[in-house]
Amino acid sequence: MLIRALYTFLLLIAAPFMLYGLYKKRAGKPAFGRRWKEHFGITPKRNAADKPLWIHAVSVGEAIAATPIIQAIKERQPNLSIVVTTTTSTGAEQIEKLSALVEHRYMPLDFPLCINGFLNAIQPSQLLIMETELWPNTLHCVATRNIPITVINARLSERSCRRYQRFQSIFHLLSQHISQLLCQYQSDAARFLRLGIDPHKISVTGSIKYDITITDEIRQQGQTLREQLGQDRPIWIAASTHQGEDEMCLAAHRQLLSHYPDALLILVPRHPERFKSVDLLCRTQGFTVSRRTEPMTEPTEIYLGDTMGEMLTLIGSADICFMAGSLLGNKVGGHNPLEPAALAKPILNGPSYYNFSQVTDDLLTADAVMICHSASEISAALVALFGHPARMQAMGQRAQQVVEENRGALEKTVQAILSPTHYSA
Fold first, then answer.
1. Were 412 and a residue from 120, 121, 122, 205 both cysteine, which residue would form a disulfide, CB within 3.0 to 4.6 Å?
2. For the chain, which domains are there?
């Protein structure tokens, strides 16, 4: 109780800074409008009288990961109501695409008054948390009402595990209210066990990310874009770049152009507020640029992906995918390489991928990904692959095979949610 009170006091001090970052206007970021009140627990009540399933997906990545779960649950129980909360407006925009299946609310701040206001309005039957977005007061308030809490697609890196071990009492404050943990891998489960989680609460269902579905529509959109960009030119994509990585990718592309003058880089910044600055960076360095949201100019050396929700289409139009977020030391820890893998694209990755270590290790074992430490290594890998089309194709096929061999987590996860059965490795 004392620890939670101290936490709440510190959160009160930090809240203005958190809210400033949340509400600050940025290019490409949807506005919250009048719905800002929901962050303070002033949540619109539902029209229906039933108790819905509550899924929390903090932002875009978690919202995308939750989508196949939502669809699978609704297939099995069409009449089950689902409320999805996100913290960010970009996450809300992603969930809006599922408006026929779910209702959206903004996640209240982690103060008991705000959380209880939300719970009084929504009256959920259970809470599903995507990955490991754990808030002490939320967990306490939900558990106090005897609402089961399940963490889905749970992962815990060795780095995070060691950090929690230093503050074991705080982790216990978080974990004591969790009903079940559905872990991605046995290694994640082992780390949670080291932190003292009851073994009976832990199941290994696999990573839902392997159950990615590439629709015929997405494939066709990728092919259509490829035809627009140039069917016969070498094309690579740098997906989800962060500040500091764009410069490295542009340097790699400049080196590639000396070997393949008609090569094209599809550059996709991770955050929409950076679209304008990355465009300016490219032009300042002398590259010709076209943007996804504008008519294409010819010739162009950089194609800037300045939209949200089109990553699969953009990757599908390229020959090779570099997964960014992996060149900045321990700042980011990489992004999900399974999207290009599912599209049978050979993958390049930086050396920092601790958020996707197991996935990347699986791809490394299959010789489906190459680790590049610098712009020159990225360029060398691109030159090598573009120079050997058969090798490039085989590498992409091996990546796709890794995805196919690891499917099945979605079915296990949905069964664990809708029934008391636990799954173990």
1. 205
2. 2-212+408-418 (3.40.50.11720), 216-405 (3.40.50.2000)
